[in-house]
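Give me structure tokens for this 347-residue protein.
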Amino acid sequence: MPFLDYVLQPPVYGWRTPDGSFSKPSTLQIFKEFFSRLNITQDRKNWLPFFSWIKVVALVPFFILFLVLYLNWWTLLIAFIYGMVIMGTHGTIWHHRYCTHKAYTFRNNFWRFITQHLTIQMIPEEIYVISHHVHHAKSDQPGDPYNANGGFLYCFLADVNHQPIAKDLSDKDYEKVRQMMHHTGVTGNSYASYKRWGSYVHPGRAIMVTLFNWLFWLTVCYLIGGFMLVCTIFGAAAFWAIGVRTFNYEGHGKGKDKQRAFTDFNTDDKSVNQLWPGIVAGEWHNNHHLYPRSARSGFKPFQIDFAWYYIYLLKKIGGVRSYRDAKKQFYEKYYTPFKKNKKPGKL
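Here you go.
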């Protein structure tokens, strides 16, 4: 059985029905799985998804204080820029293009560390990276951890229900996980610690890194703008951390075929290019599924790609050693031939 078929912990309702088709759970089944996997008293190996959601819950009070005490046009603008553009773009830069797809390489560990901590840390690299490899291998098929065919909740709660790594990997298979994560700089457990905690990262280290990151940005925000800026920025981070969980459902057409000619060239799955995620986060999703290892996804002139601008800037100043850019291949293989051969009146 291929490694990506079993590297993730399967939900109780399974990936497939007995006949091999997609197993779509009910709302009750999804919620039962969600709360079961957050139960650290039942199984300490549930600690990572629990920790991931605890971080969101911990920042919700900042968001409430922002709304009650500090909401005005200026703070709303700051929250929008930070929560939508900066946090979104950083997710694309770090978790998506570097940690998962190795679309570029850093000159040294210093620039990797800086890039990792550019924003308030919310998503554990381990949960994102391994599951995203599976997503690309099984996009919109049984086994896809955020299969849009499963509905909104299937995707929204996927970080708990479908994305954590399996708890019973062999020593050899766990080594494959280590190889997939090594370049990220996230220190991994030994196999013995993995068997104890059910995760690549040790809980003590994950907590320590998060506290360091949060304390640093809390101090910076407070020194610049006092408690008002702290509530604005940390509240915006909470809003993003909840909102980003909706992306793959929307980015794959809510499970329906919403692809458009001359806009979405990858037809192997239901991924679509969306204007809003593209502009604020460089997430031109159909382009990305065409060339997942490209450091640029905004190929067309109007497709703004702030994540690519950051990577390109770091290359110019020496922070990035190399990158892959598939824009030329996109034009040669898809854009130019389609433009020449499209029929009159066709979009």
